[in-house]
Amino acid sequence: MSAWIKRGSYNHEYHHKQSQYVVKEYSSSEAMEERYEHKTKTRIQEVVRTKLDDKYVREEPMIRGPKFLVRLRSHMVFENTPVKIFCTVEGFPMPVRVKQHAVTTNSTISFMLSLFFSPASMLPKIHYTKIHITFLEMFGPVFATEGESATLSATMTLEPNLANLQPEAQWYRDDTRLFDSKWVKIETGRGFSKLTLPNLYKDDEGLYTLRMVTKGGTAEHSAFVSVADGPPPVPAAPGAPMDIKIHDANRDYVIVSWKPPNTTTEGPILGYFVDKCEVGTENWTQCNDHPIKICKYPVSGLFEGHSFYFRVRAVNSHGISKPSRMSDPITAMDPTEFERLHAKRLGGRLDIVSYHDEVEGKPPGVPSGINASETDRTYVVLSWKAPAYTSSAPMWYYIEKCMADSGAWQRVNTQVPIRSPRYAVFDLAEGKQYKFRVLSANIYGTSAPSEPTGPIQTQELKGVPSAPGQVIATRETDTSVLIQWAPPKEPNNLIGYYIDQCVQGSKNWTSANHKPHKNTKFVVSGLTTGETYMFRVQAINELGLSDESQESAPLTVKAALTTPSAPYNIALLYCDGHSMILNWKKPLRSGGAKIKEYYVDKRRRGTTMWREVHIPPITERVENLTEGAVYQFQVYGANLAGLGPASKHSEDLTCDAWTMPEPGPAYDLTFCEVRDNSLVVEWQKPVYTGSEPITGYHVEYAKKGTANWITANEKAASHRFLKVTGLEVGTTYVFRVRAVNAAGVGMASMASDPVTAKAVAGSQEVSCVVDEKSGDIVLSFESCQINEGSKFIWKKDYKEITDFSKGVVIKSEGIHSKLIFKNPDKEDFGTYSVSVTNTEGVSSSYTISNEELVKMLALSYDIRHPVIPLKSELAYKILERGRMRFWLQAEEISSNVTYKFFANNKELSGADMAHDVATGIIEFIMDHFTEENEGTYTCQITDGGGKAQSSLVLIGNGKRDQGLLLSYDQPFKCGSNPVGPHKTCSIRLHSTKKEQYPLDYTEIIPDVKPDLGSGVCKLPIKEFSLKTAGIYKATISDDRGKDMSQINISGKVFDDAINKLSQLAGASAAELVINCTATGIQLQCHMKYYTSEMNITWYHGETKLSHSDKIVIGGTPAMATMEVVEPVEKDKGKYSIVITDPENSHKRTLDLSGDGQYFQAEAYAEKNRGKVVGGLPDVVTIMEKKTLSLTCTVCGDPKPQVSWLKNGSEYVVSLDQGKFASLTIKGVSMEDSGRYTMIVQNKYGGESVDIVVSVYRHGEKIPEAKPTLTPKTIIPPKLPIEIPQPKTQPAPSAAPSTPSPAAPKAALGRGVKSPTPSRRK
Q: Is Ribosomal protein among this UniProt entry's keywords (predicted)?
């Protein structure tokens, strides 16, 4: 029995509780009991071992050693007979191992069995808690300079986070563990670890790794720290050496080694100086008088027992470098000194330390085992085994050397006694062979020499390594490149490599590392994304650097291609019972290349085998499914790098056909213009629309992690985007969309990815201006982020702009992008948005309203057609001797002004012209003015982009015209004096499409002839709008000369004209009427004149209507229209039109609260009534006795009836074949001239079209055909209008429509036929 139990020290309750403590601590991770708080891992292990010992104590009485109950017995058997040997054993615990030995002698085989059991089988297996470590903030690459400081820190989460089971933080540099020191400071706490380098040297460069070590595993993160040379003491001096190491420290010498600096931009190294400083002082002394060329130097003459620091400086032709980091302190002493000391206890607490006792008066024994532990060019380090020595008298050694081929031994150390069995023999010849032997000595004598060594040859100076082999650069990340190279063929004691980098096209090579790298792989960090680099490598040994390797092939820095991550969130969009349309979200990481293909696998619920749906890649539809079966799907993404991982499988999806009347789910929710309190959601239309067309969408959102969905828009949005406002800044939301039709609200889309209501730092907004030079309307955007592959995507009403035929231009450069309207017009209003790809969601938008667009169009026109204001028009003054002075005065001119004078449209040259910038006066002097010089004089001025023109008419005693006047209720007119019967008037319109002088006008011949009696010349403008704005000039002339006047209809003049037209339109506006079209209901308001530039607004109730796919606003010159496309129940109500002018507003209202079925019937009738599609001319001119054939195309459902009417009384019936109707008259006569009307009609109504036929005789002049715009006459439908219902069984044929009034028989000699129709011209 255990001694503890015998002494009565075993406490069952106590040890039982401690066992529970151990189980809780290592198995369930519960809080430990309050009686014991063990803070360290070591203490916990002690507790475990203690409690396991207790377990042995409890089970000791039960332990029994292994024992054979039934032993093996001897057997005699026949040859080649199988034998089974049995035995019975016992023991507690059960023996676990059996050793079997067989010994064969002639015909006898002997067996021996051995039984063992292991007490370890009684130990419970300890399951350590698995601590999951997730890094939150990780340190990245550091690029610093010598003398600076650097801090690497990382934060992490621990799961579970136990106070007494914190992971151990271990920091490494190039796989060498770091500890707190003068050069490194480490701080670690719960959830963080930080390493600080307070004073950087190139020794600190390397790959730093933080390892969080737990019993269950290790988590680590690494980053490179680059330390460049600091400013040199003198320009072009080399960088400091590094990595100072101390070897073979002894009583009076040490060997110092170091690594040379990189000399990419400096001259070659000529040598090095080694400095030493005794600990406790600051006096650095130089150890060598002349620079040494190799990176190793023995420093002798040290004082025994003193400690020293060492440092090294490099020298080139420009000067001496800064010193390296000083070495760790080293003490000059015999390393075996303490091996010969021992302690004696004198009694009590006093000890005495002395050398071993000896028998006095004997010399020491002979040393043995002499060998060379290190050889160099000029020295050899010898080691040997000291003889057995117990004397208190000091012992020392003598070393002798001789050339290998001679026997002349020479003592090496005649001045300095050697105390330790290790010594460096210096001043040897390079490449020679030597033998060495050692003698031991004390005050009593010298031993015999040891056995000499074999020939030991010193090294020869082989030089620097050969150049490394081929250098290969491959992509790593978007800021780093992996460099690999072949080692040099002649390494010659290789120390490491230096890597240089250079931007392609330049010769500016810079160092990628500042400390020799040992491996043939290196990751160059801190590169510019998208830039192209070349690399080269140099090998280095203690003598210096090799030649450069060949340059690598140019490589553009970008992330290496990898396979995409897995798609996610597989959703069902539609099922028809035999196939499904699936949708999924794209992988979060594309792997650096575009995802071109997706692959889908399927399996039945309850099975484990996945099957490919199709071998070719698919995008969404999965076919050949079994109706009613339940499936699961998984999706793979593929790019150039290969196939990515599979997505998480979908939920169980049943293959049942969708028949619900409501729409299916929308999909592909995306976000843009994310701000602190708002964002814009976009989505795709559902694949399944339900039984009725989709009329709108509702957007819902909820805070992440909650199910409290809030509807963002109570009124369904008719478009597939919505700006959601009222969000909380910094809060994360998820969104979903529901489509709406007449049957109700449809299925919700899959919830979007979470999005946080927080603007991207530095976000800018789109600005809209009119370019002051070109007059273009420009939308500008500056991105706060730009990355490789980023593109600017411009959209109008959130549809990407792809049509550039109307003068829309996109210009992007760097972080700036512009959307330019070269030819803006009134249709360019709307919301324009821009997004930048490959960023953190940088986007913005700008809405151009109709009112703002009108103002910008007017400003654009003014900029493109600038006019220099004149203080006075062109005038004249008669001077002495028949000279004439012509002059005008501008408001302001510059010194760059140019001008020309014209007389009767011929440029004057050689005249005395001058101008005064201060007064703005421009003049020219005509020397002799006679009657031959009478006519029109014009001065054209150009100053920068501005132009001006003024004219003067000098014709006898005649007066100038009264000028051009603009009348808003009358045609445009020119007032003048009557000047004879041959006076003519012409009006020209200035071209607004090119920058040119007003002489290049487009001539317009007025329909109204000038009234020479009253002196009024009128120009009617039938459709007055922004397109007809410009400069109008009227020229009047007779046999005595001509005169001219002009008016600029733009700017304020144009606005005044529109206001006056608005007054006329408002006063003449009729009540609203309804017209059913093929697509919906159209409200019409007839008025004297209508143009889109008028201030006219439509309302539905109190809601202002704007132009959209649902509401179409427009008009003709005689009426304003508003059409409701596909009206539904909610479109009922009062509609009104408001015509506003500066003085009054005119309102007309119509109530559409009646039966919506009626309007649907009207629309159906309009769609199916008889119509003339085309083919008939307005006017036909034909020679007598020719054949007249009038053919056209008609349509309608049911098939319409066609009849012809001449001059309102005579009926002529045509033959209708299919969709073509024609009228043929052979041998036409003069009596056949007149107006013909074709009537096309079915039960839903129809229309009539007029054609004028003019017959002329042979030899007569062909009469001029003047087509007149005669509107079609609409024939209303028969009431009530019946809309056919879906047929469940064949219905009887419809009764024929009531024909038009019976037409008389065709005239004799006339035939009717239906030839192939001709295209209507």
A: no
